[in-house]
Design a protein that fits this description.
By secondary structure, the chain is α/β, with parallel strands linked by helices. The protein is built from 20 helices and 12 strands.
Length: about 500
């Protein structure tokens, strides 16, 4: 994963981070308040040799004590040292329990033994520490004495008696809060990362490119009013979404020029990904560019093109394929430019897949390719039925519309597999309903939003927003008035307005 991917995970899962940190800090405060304050007191004991008449004896004694001092530190927590302490102080505790309150330390290259005692009572901690130091000295003297009644060659002297601590040594609020904060961040990021890893929805262009073997042709930003305003290229020609469709048109034109594809199928993996609206606006954009365009509705399951453009859809392509109607009876010119013809689906047949794969379909496409610069075919989704896969083989290729955030990676992979199984060609992908807010929004800038925004302002265009007002305050044409007209006038492309 790249650093940017981690930042995306943090942005998406910031709620989990905040919640985990808050819980961890609350737990840290609770532990601090509920913990019993512990006071510590340290006694320092110096180990020396008592036989040092000459320099050689002094060196020998120093070496002897350095070898022994670690063993003396271990003896400090043994019953032979602690039992006398318990008896002398009258403690109601066993030597094993008392040993848990005691820790010893031997500083490097020294003959000092630091004996530290922890206890809820500060005075008691200091008293026990001093008593342990004295008991240790007594027991070492008895152990090291060569014979009974003789003087031990080692002497333990208290150089720093234990002092009564004024502040508890634990719990430490700052340390506990730091540990809780770190634990909360790790836990929160872990939850966010796990959620992102288990999320199989297609979120951005990287997800699509990892699955598909074709590039991304364009991206359409999410708009709440898209359902009420399907022909945005017509009603809001200077909006960001309209500019995105024009950029999509340009990218497809490059493919047409490079590969000679004139018939393009537009589909999606599952229903409601916006394939019909994308096809309709793409057709208008191509017609505005001066291309002779034919839009065919081959969605013989749930046709929408005739409703989108507000034209008659009772008789259409199916009637032509079975010989019930002639070409001039079913094709309908749309707009005043004369560049866009629409062929509605017509009557819904009982055998859509067989009809789309018939010889009549192949002959019809070969005929229309000679009359038009480009033929766009809107068809049913790939996963529920095989219609689009069949057409992808007959036509020049297929463009897949991907609803970002709705479709899953397995669904997209399944749609691609359907196309590969019949030997179809995927021209590219169109990202639809790209979020303008949130962690994935920045991906949209790579697919036209930033370009369209700067492009419009560079040349002084007015932008029409979803509320129907343009930047200068002028009221834009409503979506309802656009739908009521069957043959509205196509707007002139790239017409600048005066500031």
């Amino acid at each position: 994963m790249k650093l940017r991917d981690y930042w995306v995970i943090v942005r998406k899962g910031w709620k989990y981070l905040v919640a985990a940190v808050a819980i961890a800090l609350a737990a840290g405060v609770a532990v601090t308040l509920l913990s019993t304050p512990m006071y510590s007191s340290t006694t320092s004991v110096f180990v020396s040799a008592q036989t040092a008449d000459t320099t050689a004896d002094l060196l020998q004694g120093s070496s002897f004590t350095q070898q022994r001092v670690k063993s003396y530190a271990d003896i400090a927590t043994s019953p032979i040292v602690l039992d006398p302490v318990i008896e002398s102080l009258g403690l109601d505790i066993t030597s094993a329990e008392l040993a848990k309150q005691i820790s010893t330390e031997v500083p490097l290259n020294t003959v000092l033994i630091n004996i530290t005692v922890n206890d809820p009572n500060a005075n008691k901690a200091a008293t026990i520490a001093n008593a342990v130091g004295q008991s240790l000295a007594t027991q070492v003297d008895a152990i090291e004495a060569p014979l009974s009644g003789q003087v031990s060659p080692v002497k333990l002297s208290t150089v720093q008696p234990g002092q009564v601590s004024l502040k508890p040594d634990s719990p430490k609020l700052a340390v506990n809060m730091a540990i809780a904060l770190l634990a909360g961040l790790v836990l929160g990021f872990g939850i966010a990362w796990l959620r992102e890893t288990l999320d199989v929805r297609v979120r951005n262009g990287n997800d699509i490119e990892e699955i598909g073997h074709a590039g991304i042709l364009g991206g359409i930003v999410f708009d709440e009013s898209a359902d009420d305003n399907p022909l945005v290229v017509l009603t809001q020609p200077k909006s960001v979404r309209s500019e995105a469709f024009r950029q999509l048109r340009t990218n497809i034109q490059f493919i047409e020029a490079a590969e000679g594809r004139k018939t393009i199928v537009v589909s999606s993996s599952i229903p409601s990904e916006g394939k019909s609206f994308t096809t309709a606006n793409l057709a208008i954009s191509m017609a505005d560019a001066g291309m002779k365009v034919l839009l065919i509705d081959c969605d013989f399951r749930k046709p929408k093109i005739h409703k989108t453009f507000g034209i008659e859809g009772t008789v259409g392509f199916t009637n032509f394929l079975i010989g019930q109607a002639k070409w001039n009876d079913v094709v309908q010119p749309w707009g005043l430019t004369g560049k866009l013809d629409i062929l509605p689906a017509g009557q819904i047949p009982p055998n859509p897949s067989e009809l789309l794969g018939s010889e009549a379909m192949k002959k019809a496409l070969a005929t229309v390719e000679a009359k038009y610069d480009v033929v766009l075919i809107d068809t049913a989704p790939l996963l529920p039925v095989t219609d689009a896969a069949i057409l992808s083989k007959i036509a020049g290729g297929i463009v897949l519309v991907v609803n970002v955030g709705r479709i899953t990676k397995p669904q997209l992979q399944g749609a691609i597999n359907h196309i590969d199984a019949v030997g179809g060609k995927i021209i590219g992908f169109v990202m639809n309903k790209i979020p303008t807010k949130g962690a994935d929004a920045y991906y949209y800038y790579s697919y036209g939003y930033k370009y369209g925004y700067k492009y419009g302002y560079q040349y002084g265009y007015q932008y029409t927003y979803g509320d129907g007002t343009e930047e200068g305050g002028k009221k834009a044409k409503s979506a309802k008035s656009a739908k009521s007209s069957k043959s509205p006038k196509s707007p002139k492309q790239d017409a600048p307005v005066k500031a």
